[in-house]
Amino acid sequence: MRTELRELLSSTTGLFSAAAWSVGTADGVLDRGVLGTRWHGGPAATEESRWDLASVTKPIAGIVVVALAERGLLDLDEPLPRYLPAYAGGDKAGITVRQLLAHTSGLPGGTPLYREHPTRESLLEAIRTGPLRATPGARVEYSSQGFILLGLIAEAAGGAPLDRLVAELVTQPLGLTATGFGPGQGLPADAVATEDCPWRGRVVCGQVHDENAVVLGGVCGHAGLFATLGDVERLGQALAGGAQALLKPASHAEMIACHTEGLALRRGLAWQGLDVPGSPVGTALEPAAYGHTGFTGTSLWIEPERRRFYLLLTNRVHPSRSTPGIETVRREFHASAAML
């Protein structure tokens, strides 16, 4: 294997305790590796270590939603109350599933609801009754609340818990045996640590980092999945090859197309497009590239025309989310990886 990416990630001392990466095509891997320790002073990170994917959960939940639409179990252009009747009659009654997927629902972005709503019921009620930030369809605002609702919509339409739907529609078709929500489900427990969390009073390891997801029980549409390097690598290869094991070609093409033309940011259905300027991975990838990042320091990006994937897993929130530098590392990683 090459040394460029290992040297780049090895030089970022202090930003994270561990990193794993893979770059390749639909047909094979060009470069991959694991370095560092699961927490500062802890055991070495290995191929079997499980990473908190954070918001990389969102496109996986999005695949579930689109797969259910393929099966005729939901309609992307139906409004919220069709699947969540409690939303009838309010200011959110006209939001469609498609708008939730494209982050154009008008729901607010990062909101620490867990601070005032410590139970699942009260947190979900806060989402239902909270104010919109914009008229649905008028602008892009990245919203985890929207993907919390998408997880509930998937459960209502699919007639099963979200973790089972993810297994049936994503992980099992691809053979991802070490991917799932949280430390349970019979999966390995050797997670990579995330934050020394003031709210929990401890270093988090094996529990989802996102606090709203903790209150919701850890199985959510916006965060909560853990996976090994090899599993996310297989997902990347599948996507680079057109996602044929997961979706019909037309459905996959619809997911990765831009649904926010004329707005400030490029968004597909659950995927982020390559914004220039402003992309978190820089501008070295092809203009049609799509992907997603995660707050814990994870990312998965695809170049569909080159049939390439770029995977970077770190625990950049360990021990603190305030440590700067992940933006630079992501840009430099993708600039170097695109040259392989």
UniProtKB/TrEMBL annotation:
Protein name per the record: Serine hydrolase domain-containing protein
E.C. no: 3.1.1.103
GO molecular function: hydrolase activity
Claim: DNA repair is one of the keywords in the record: no
Domain named Beta-lactamase-related: residues: 32-326
Organism: Amycolatopsis carbonis
Highest taxon above the source species: Bacteria
Keyword tRNA-binding (UniProt): no
InterPro entries in the cross-refs: Beta-lactam-related, Beta-lactam/transpept-like, Diverse_Enzym_Activities
Annotated keywords: Hydrolase
